[in-house]
Amino acid sequence: MSASARQNAVGAAITTPVAAPSRRRWLRVSAVALAAATLCVSAAGYAADTVKIGLVTALSGQSARAGEALTRGMTIAIDEINASGGVLGGRKLELVRRDDEGNPAKGVLAARELIYKDKVAVLFGGLDTPVSMAIVPIANQEKVPFMGPWAAGTPITHNGANPNYVFRVSAVDEIVDGAMVSYAQQTFGAKKLGLILVNNPWGESNEKGIVAALTAKGTKPAAVEKFEANDVDVTPQLGRLKAAGADTLLMVGNVGPSAQVVKSLDRMGWKVPIVSHWGPAGGRFTELAGPNAKTVHFVQTYSFFGATSPVSTRVVAALKAKYPDIKGPDDITPAVGVANAYDAMRLTALAIDRAGSTSGDAIRTGFYKIDRYEGLIKTYVKPFSEQQHDALSAQDYVWAQFIDNRIVPVAAAGAKVAAK
Which InterPro entries match (predicted)? Predict the structure, then answer.
């Protein structure tokens, strides 16, 4: 074919009209294409969706340091989980926080917002037993798993609900109370224990537990005194405990009121051993209590001092890399907040994977399917069951005190003091 013939043929092909598809066919093809595109977008969107984890805790005020410790423990765990592929075949975890300011009413509002607006798959509750107790009914009603990494009130997990959506990786008052009594007797030779307790549900929970522990030993408190969370002087209560012959005090209260107990003892000139629940560990205790803050011995569930494990080495390295203020174990404070929150988050991720979905009821039963997890605090073997929603026991407790504004185990503290 000549060049001119080829050119004419091409031109004819270009200019010759092609039969257009009917309108009906065009609409059908378009609809199929649109459906396919929508399916692809939806699938991609689902794969990209994060699984939201809520945290309600004190992020301001006297206990803000403890709220930050919980945040850091959860964040390090979430970073590890996301780096290893997330949950449910590739979905990332996302932490969403709300400040309860230690106020039950604000805690309830925060929990409702996280559940209804943010659609969290699991809700973590922070520091205060009254706040957690206010959230428990909502979690059980809405079937949203509620994980406690700090508040120790016995009724939080022993709440009577069936099914029960509340779990905990933390101390439990009724166990701590027995440990406090034994520690006071063994360490200080206590014969007459005086109780000084905050006047709220947490104080009530511990009064019941301590009295039961003393009853089991065939004795009873020398006296029981209460104080309000905002009291700035408790010398009247302490005076009555002294008059009753108390030789050791068992104290339950958060940072501020516990500091006032120590300062009131200073004003009285009464030097008496204090064995405390872990309230003083939650914030600016040494600043508020003064020099004698170091005399208070309190319970913890973990210390970064002592023998290390592969998990603790990894966590400390991650904390140092992410938070410039952490140079070593001394700076991880309160350690209990970091450790409890870290293990609780890792166990929660396992429960979500065991559930195979973000359904609240599926995650609840997912906790029961956890066989073994080598955690920071310990190796957990079947930590949860229908009958047991607390993962830690008395064997997981250590005793600590403040030395140079740092929380250290009592034995290590004694060694440090002796070296000075």
Answer: BCAA_transport (IPR051010), Leu-bd (IPR028081), Leu_Ile_Val-bd (IPR000709), Peripla_BP_I (IPR028082), TAT_signal (IPR006311)
Strand ranges (E), 19-145: 51-57, 93-99, 122-125
- Please check whether residue 171 is in contact with residue 278, taking contact to mean a CB–CB distance below 8 angstroms: yes
Q: Identify the residue whose tokens are 């992020």.
A: 59
* pLDDT in the model for residue 255: 86
What's the CATH superfamily of 51-171+306-393? Answer: Response regulator (3.40.50.2300)
Angle of CA points 84, 315, 367, to nearest 5°: 60
Q: Which residues on adjacent β-strands are paired with residue 197?
A: 226, 252
CATH topology of domain 174-300: Rossmann fold (3.40.50)
Beta pairing class for 406-409 and 398-403: antiparallel
Asked whether residue 69 carries a pLDDT value surpassing 90, the answer given is yes
Gap between the Cα atoms of 350 and 369, Å rounded: 9
- Residue 383, φ and ψ in degrees, nearest 5: -70, -20
Sequence length of the chain is 420
More confident residue, 128 or 316: 316
How far is the C-alpha of 156 from the C-alpha of 240, rounded, in Å? 32
Q: Where in the chain is the domain with CATH 3.40.50.2300?
A: 51-171+306-393, 174-300
pLDDT at 118 over 60: yes
Question: Average pLDDT in the 278-291 region?
Answer: 84
Across the range 218-235, mean pLDDT stands at 94
Percent over 70 (pLDDT), the chain: 86
pLDDT-based confidence at residue 43 (cuts at 50, 70, 90): very low
Give the C-alpha separation, 357 to 374, whole Å. 23
pLDDT of the residue at 48: 54
- Write out the two tokens for 300: 């913890």
- Among the listed residues 326, 329, 255, 328, the one whose alpha carbon sits nearest the alpha carbon of residue 293: 255
Mean pLDDT for the stretch of residues 90-117: 97
The single-letter code of the amino acid at 133 is M
301-338 burial, b if ≥16 CB within 10 A, otherwise e? Answer: bbbbbeeeeebbeebbebbeeeeeebeebbebbbbbbb
Nearest to 60 by CA among 114, 103, 95, 117: 103
> Is 95:334 a contact under the CB 8 Å cutoff?
no
Say how far apart CA 187 and CA 243 lie, in whole Å.
Answer: 23
Closest to 143 (Cα-Cα) out of 128, 122, 125: 122
Contact assessment for residue 56 and residue 135, using Cβ atoms and an 8 Å cutoff: yes
